[in-house]
Design brief:
alpha/beta, 15 strands, 222 residues, three-stranded mixed beta sheet, 31% helix, globular, L-arginine/glycine Amidinotransferase, Chain A
Length: 222
């Protein structure tokens, strides 16, 4: 059983709005506390770096990343991109100019594949594929085009919001080895904003129930 724990960040159970994790590192808003950063480091087993995007702590909403690359919207300050490049010199930091600039909400990625908001153009999809070095699939899930906000993906598996259709789930089972449906934070459909995870562990908002934790853990192959 992989580590699973409950956490709030800045007093908020929507911890995925303030943080994002990969198998190499985790990012969290600059306003987070030392204790919150320590919990992420302990339970996910990776270094934790603080970051802001255009002065905001909402890293999970505005940034998208995998173990190799970090994509920031062009609203990010040059000083922010420079600071994170200095902290994580092994990661490729890219600036992506797009109208769908809440990248974390619109891009769901691991180290091999990315599901992206279907409203991205073919050109933008190619850019995302190149920046993250992954295969890209354009689709909504369960009626939500904000696939990053409403689902959770790691290198071990995927957790889908429980409005996913049978057809969508069947397709995703062909792409990922471990798949489950769930909610988080006591019924919230925005799983990606309620949790952060990598191959080593899972952190969920404090309102998340034991049943939800079990469902999420199943999809992540824990």
């Amino acid at each position: 059983m992989m580590p699973t724990a409950k956490l709030s960040i800045l007093g908020n159970d929507y911890i995925g709005a303030f943080s994002i994790a990969t198998d190499s590192f985790s990012l969290v808003g600059k306003g987070s506390t030392k204790g919150e950063r320590s919990a992420i480091k302990r339970d996910l087993g990776v270094p934790v770096h603080d970051l802001s995007v255009s002065g905001s702590d909402l890293i999970g909403i505005y940034a998208a990343c995998n173990s190799r690359s970090l994509i920031l919207p062009d609203a990010a300050y040059a000083s922010e991109a420079k600071a994170i490049k200095k902290q994580i010199d092994s990661v490729n930091v890219e600036i992506f100019k797009t109208d769908l600039n809440a990248l974390g909400n619109n891009i769901l990625t691991n180290d091999k594949k990315a599901i992206i908001n279907p409203n991205y153009s073919s050109k933008e999809a190619k850019e995302i594929s190149d920046m993250l070095d992954v295969e890209v699939i354009k689709m909504g899930i369960g009626g939500f085009e904000t696939v990053g906000a409403n689902n959770l993906l790691t290198n071990r598996g995927i957790v889908l919001n429980n409005r996913v259709t049978e057809e969508e789930e069947s397709l995703l089972k062909e792409l990922f080895t471990s798949v489950s449906q769930s909610t988080a934070n006591l019924g919230a459909l925005s799983i990606g904003l309620c949790a952060i995870a990598n191959s080593r562990g899972l952190l969920v908002g404090r309102a998340t129930t034991g049943y939800e934790i079990a469902s999420i853990s199943e999809g992540l192959g824990f």
